[in-house]
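As a point of orientation, let us examine one representative protein, giving the amino acid sequence and backbone structure tokens.
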Amino acid sequence: MTHAAALLQLAADLGLSCPRLRRDGTVVVHSDEAGYLATTRLSATASELIGTYVHVITDDAPGATDALEM
């Protein structure tokens, strides 16, 4: 949550919406694009920003429903 504002902006810049955070630190986003290019980019950029791997999944994946708004 320390980097929530930056993550929200990164997600928006990549065309991803509704970013949320699971208790295990996984970022959950909605994507209207086919494939996972934008989520992969978000993971890479967020990992660089935070200094550790950031797991990003789309909201249609199992386990995405328990995420909380950032």
Summary: The mean pLDDT is 89. DSSP finds two helices and four strands in the chain.
